Amino acid sequence: MHDDLIARARTWLAEDPDPDTRDELAGLLDAGDVTELTARFSGTLQFGTAGLRGELGAGPMRMNRAVVIRAAAGLAAYLKKHGSPDGVVVIGYDARHKSEDFARDTAAVMTGAGLKAAVLPRPLPTPVLAYAIRHLGAVAGVEVTASHNPPRDNGYKVYLGDGSQIVPPADAEIAAEIQAITSLNDVPRPDTGWETLDDSVLDAYLARTDAVLAEHSPRTARTVYTAMHGVGKDTLLAAFARAGFPTPDLVAEQADPDPDFPTVAFPNPEEPGAMDLAFAKARETDPDLIIANDPDADRCAVAVKEKDNTWRMLRGDEVGALLAAHLVNRGAQGTFAESIVSSSLLGRIAEKAGLPHEETLTGFKWIARVEGLRYGYEEALGYCVDPEGVRDKDGITAALLITELASELKEENRTLPDLLDDLAVTHGLHATDQLSVRVEDLSIIATAMERLREHPPTELAGLPVTEAEDLTRGTDRLPPTDGLRYTLTGARVIVRPSGTEPKLKCYLEVVVPVAAHADLPAARARATDLLTAIKRDLSAAAGI
User: Looking at 403, 425, 447, which one is the last position of a domain?
Assistant: First the structure.
């Protein structure tokens, strides 16, 4: 077994096109580091509906040029089998370590396979790539990004020609084509032959952002903005300038791309501490709201000042409801959609407005495919406010729309929290929270899921569980997925493994009736108590 491991590592080393990972792997071989070699060669990084995502490094269980070249060759083979032998594949990338190399390798593989490759001119937000696919009439798109993962990670996200991320069975078919590649020497990779796009695609995307806003809406709200060391700044500033909003005050320490993300433990606005510098900037400049993008700018976080002058990050469900209410107020028509882990408040808003409402599995790969979609969101800070332009979450256009709403409320001497209060009185207080457990050992997640399946809770926080669903069986409206859903009297819980990180995620929602604005403090206290108790009881039931 040891000899086989060494032989596989040496075979990989001989083919590895990257001097950095060659040196890394050679060092492990010279040191005889069996533990680390076993971790690198215990399988292959699996291609799925999230594409690829993992830690950078040498070997088939890491993200590296050899793995990316195989993935690109598998995608090219899939496209050719499905009637696109010479179509355009547009390629974008963020500013993480190796992203540009992975984009260039992808372009070379596509060119070698007889397809036409077009690479965005520099690191740009993921929504620009999603827009470019349909704008250029491409047969597929690739974005090299690990979104908000830690600095050591990178990833590879695949879209098909409709501008949406891949879903089954395309993922399995592409994975099979990747598996069929025996040697990198069989993959032609010319040094030239692909196109590097100019700024015309970005200009077209920016022109499209104009469609998000009402023609004569107020544009007065002042913002603090952080790009979280990612690629959002220039595109967001250009969009805000086009729209006529005041120039955002930048969090200077996080404004420019930096693949090491030096000021944050995790470059995700939802993580503790990630927004601290933005809050500090807001205390200096007293804006109307704070806007944050994640590193590839497909997500949008919003923070607001409360009545006690402290700054609070809004939950994704709160922003989702605010944007929905704003679009309804503007007379939007079409289907409002969300993932099953998002707040049921969206359904209430849509129902009152007489609009269709749909729930999908987690991820914009599903939300973007809803027929007649006008607006889609999911609680993890993702919002699709212009599905005709970008069939994916878009942190730039979401930032424009929430700033327009803040401007309208400002004209009325009101704030985003005031509108949230109104929604609570109209529809009931929908309070959400999350129990999220990050693990080193993935078996902990599998054990917790097995435990809940074998011994489902009968009550949580004293609320009876009226229905327990194992979503691996699917429902009449949803295809199968690895998840559990518990319906309680006045509450809902969903438990699932994360698709992109080593986490078990539990999504909690309680609904507390509210008769009048004066009842809101008591309703919020009740909701907080319930969510705390549900977390405690669910954690005990899952053994985490």
Answer: 425
Q: Are residues 93 and 184 in the same domain?
A: yes
How many domains does the chain fold into? Answer: 3
Kind and range of the H or E run holding 143: strand 140-144
One domain, residues 275 and 166: no
Quick one: residue 441, left, alpha or beta (phi over 0 = left, psi -120 to 50 = alpha)? beta
Distance between CA 418 and CA 519 in Å, rounded? Answer: 14
Is 367 found in the same domain as 488? no
Residue 371 confidence (pLDDT) above 90: yes
Name the residue with tokens 């069929």: 180
**Paired tokens of 318:** 């709160």
Task: Judge contact between 482 and 445, C-beta under 8 A.
Answer: no
Residue type, 533: A
Sheet of strand 463-470: strand arrangement: 429-438, 503-512, 491-497, 484-488, 463-470, 459-460
Model confidence at 501, in pLDDT bands (50, 70, 90)?
confident
Cβ atoms 337, 373 nearer than 8 A: yes
Max intra-chain CA distance, the chain? 74
Q: What is the CATH number of the domain that holds 39?
A: 3.40.120.10
- 411 and 298 in a single domain? The answer is yes
Find the angle CA(483)-CA(351)-CA(496) to the nearest 5 degrees.
Answer: 10
Same domain for 456 and 413: no
DSSP 307-358: TTS-EEEPPHHHHHHHHHHHHHHTT--SEEEEETTS-THHHHHHHHHT--EE
pLDDT value of residue 1: 59
pLDDT on residue 477:
85
In a domain, 208, yes or no: no
- Is it the case that residue 410 has pLDDT exceeding 90? yes
Q: In what order do the strands lie in the sheet with 249-250?
A: 249-250, 223-226, 289-293, 300-305, 311-313
Q: Is residue 168 part of a domain?
A: yes
Neighbouring C-beta atoms of residue 288, cutoff 10 Å: 20
441: confidence class by pLDDT, cuts 50, 70, 90: confident
pTM: 0.95
Contact 297, 125 (CB under 8 A): yes
Collapsing DSSP states into helix, strand and coil, what is residue 470? strand
DSSP string of 89-117, one letter each residue: EEEEE-SSTTHHHHHHHHHHHHHHTT-EE
| Residue 339 annotated in active site | no
| Residue among 84, 99, 147, 164 flagged as catalytic | 147
Supply the range of the domain harboring residue 337.
220-425
Q: Do 41 and 59 contact (CB within 8 A), yes or no?
A: yes
